[in-house]
Amino acid sequence: VRRLEVATGTPSIRVPVVQGRTWRIAEFDVPGVTEERTAVVAPTQVLAGEVHDAAASSRERRAEIEREEADGRAALWEWCRVADSRDREMIPPEAWGLYGEEHERQIEAAYREGKASAPICIGIRTYDVVFSGSDALKQVDRALSKRRFVRRRVLPLAERDSVLRAASAAFVAANADVADGECAVCFADFAETPAIPVVRLGECGHCFHGACVQELADRNEPCPLCRVAVNWHEALKVVAGPQRGGC
């Protein structure tokens, strides 16, 4: 389900859609990947659902955060590189990846405010980092029905800063040869999105954000640029490697 804001009285809107298991609204219009559809704007309907007590959660979390700050510690949000893992306790330390600085701020801000989840956009995909409920401490892609564990690790400030510096240096070194390029799906420069793992296709050498080509990989589609057949299993191994991001 997607919520779109339109002006009062708008009879219809045109939106880009992409086909996966079903048709869904895309974040961007991508030539050769998305199609345009007209959607009729119906009267607003109010749906009843579970009410999240944001005030209570905010108070509890604020007390927790105050204790952390008093001890000179800070949070670091991490995502599990293994999608749909079933046992959090069995995840090895090297299987946890770091979010980028902007996403770290967004997730931590929502957590401090007592919200149930934090929506984030990575490439052309949208995720919810969920704090409570049945998907608590998971990164959820509702469009592709994918879930990953996340965790909030609290470290001394100096150690947290050291972890972030080391991860940034490792990412820059691993992607130095594509620093001047851009993802052909979302058109963002790789240099401006260092937190998103970069996938290089072995068959043709074209590079994309791992998050942006996940749906193509799920459908075993060819390269979106040159249409050569791709071994996506090999190509997406980079997402499970020692990089920062969140696919």
The total number of structural domains is 3
| Total strands | 11
H/E element sequence? EEEHEEHEEEEHEEHH
Fraction of residues in helix: 10-25%
According to CATH, what is the topology of the largest domain? Signal recognition particle alu RNA binding heterodimer, srp9/1
Distance between the termini: 20 Å
**Could you give a short account of the major beta sheet?**
6 strands, antiparallel
Low-pLDDT segments, ≥5 res: 44-52, 241-247
Strand content: 15-25%
List the helices and strands and how they pair.
Elements lengths: L11 E8 L3 E3 L9 E6 L13 H17 L2 E8 L15 E3 L2 H12 L4 E6 L2 E6 L7 E4 L4 E11 H18 L23 E3 L6 E3 H9 L13 H4 L12
Question: How does this structure look, described?
Answer:
By secondary structure, this protein is α+β, with helices and mostly antiparallel strands. The chain has three domains: 1-51, no CATH class; 54-158, Signal recognition particle alu RNA binding heterodimer, srp9/1; 176-237, 2-Layer Sandwich (Herpes Virus-1), CATH 3.30.40. It is 24% helix and 25% strand. The protein is built from five helices and eleven strands; from the N terminus they run βββαββαββββαββαα. It has helices spanning 54-70, 101-112, 157-174, 210-218, 232-235; strands at 12-19, 23-25, 35-40, 73-80, 96-98, 117-122, 125-130, 138-141, 146-156, 198-200, 207-209. Strands 5-4-9-8-7-6 form a six-stranded antiparallel β-sheet. β7 and β8 form a beta hairpin. The two termini are 20 Å apart. Residues 44-52 and 241-247 have low confidence and may be disordered.
